[in-house]
């Protein structure tokens, strides 16, 4: 089904890729979360460009563009998200040896500043895929008493397929500049992948057209770009998935749910908040999954088409939530 953007050679490479999760016993005090080590996503490449990606969406996009021309290593293993990452000596080693680092930007990878200082790689080129992309402010009311948030700009741009196209194009341009010898393959792979992103956007637009203006409710504010793209309204309880909602947060959302006659609330697979589940139970609605792609399985991280599978599933579940 997804042979559309891969050459037969690239398909064989992806199918035979082995993700290797390095281990390190020494934990650096760079971030206060869980220990993790880099994951190599295309171990067949031995002499090409060395590229490190920050987390799952950047890994999927970069692997699609890089093909056989570059070694792509995920700094954060796919089973961990940016909020759960803690650096190890292997993390620093990967950055020290890399030529390129691909990140989402917009504050999503706050841990990188200290990590890059420790890696001390003056020749490392950082590709910030958010540059030039229209952004949105956080959706949760700033008057709520939360300890921290994503900052003044919501970072979840990859959940809008059109903005994802811009991210892929930024990755392409960075790879071409760093490795002109593979420029044609980077350009071709990017073209095929972005064509499929455009088709995905058209597909989702068609499915959601009849729900234009409808409201959905999610636990944390991961979907404002998706909502904007498809003319939906999102209501979110908290800024970050690890936050605990206040009684005022839950009351505010309960009012929205009753007014909008929602059938379900959206929660990401990484989150399991008791207050959110209790709210759904009190309101007599279900909880369905909308996967923001911040984490995934090792198998899913092997294949760039994972993005399309997840986004299609998200659309189906969203329709269930808003009454389809």
From TrEMBL:
PANTHER family: HIGH-AFFINITY ZINC UPTAKE SYSTEM PROTEIN ZNUA, HIGH-AFFINITY ZINC UPTAKE SYSTEM PROTEIN ZNUA-RELATED. The keyword Ribonucleoprotein does not apply. Residues 1-37 form the signal peptide. GO terms for molecular function: metal ion binding. Keywords: Coiled coil, Signal, Transport. Residues 183-210 form a coiled coil. Pfam families: ZnuA. InterPro entries: AdhesinB, Bact_metal-bind_prot9, ZnuA-like. It comes from Prochlorococcus marinus (strain MIT 9303). This is Uncharacterized protein. One of its GO terms (biological process) is cell adhesion. Belongs to the bacterial solute-binding protein 9 family.
């Amino acid at each position: 089904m997804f042979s559309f953007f891969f050459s037969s050679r690239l398909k064989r490479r992806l199918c035979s890729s082995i993700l290797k999760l390095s281990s390190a016993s020494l934990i650096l005090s760079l971030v206060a979360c869980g220990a993790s080590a880099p994951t190599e996503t295309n171990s067949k490449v031995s002499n090409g460009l060395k590229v490190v990606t920050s987390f799952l969406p950047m890994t999927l996009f970069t692997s699609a563009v890089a093909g056989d021309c570059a070694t792509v290593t995920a700094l954060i293993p796919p089973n961990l998200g940016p909020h759960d990452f803690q650096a190890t000596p292997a993390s620093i080693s990967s950055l020290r040896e890399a030529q390129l680092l691909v990140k989402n930007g917009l504050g999503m990878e706050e841990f990188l500043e200290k990590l890059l200082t420790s890696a001390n790689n003056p020749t490392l080129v950082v590709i910030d895929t958010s540059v030039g992309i229209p952004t949105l402010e956080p959706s949760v009311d700033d008057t709520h008493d939360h300890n921290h948030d994503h900052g003044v700009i919501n970072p979840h741009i990859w959940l809008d397929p059109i903005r994802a196209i811009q991210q892929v194009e930024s990755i392409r341009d960075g790879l071409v500049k760093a490795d002109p010898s593979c420029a044609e393959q980077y350009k071709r792979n990017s073209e095929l992948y972005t064509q499929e992103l455009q088709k995905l956007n058209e597909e989702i637009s068609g499915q959601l057209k009849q729900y234009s203006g409808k409201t959905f409710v999610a636990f944390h504010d991961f979907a404002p770009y998706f909502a904007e793209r498809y003319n939906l309204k999102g209501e979110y309880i908290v800024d970050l998935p690890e936050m605990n909602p206040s009684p005022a947060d839950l009351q505010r959302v309960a009012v929205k749910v009753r007014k909008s006659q929602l059938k379900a609330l959206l929660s990401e697979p990484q989150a399991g908040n008791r207050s959110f589940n209790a709210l759904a139970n009190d309101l007599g609605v279900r909880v369905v999954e909308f996967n923001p792609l911040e984490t995934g399985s090792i198998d899913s991280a092997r294949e760039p088409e994972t993005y399309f599978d997840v986004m299609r599933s998200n659309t189906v579940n969203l329709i269930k939530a808003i009454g389809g």
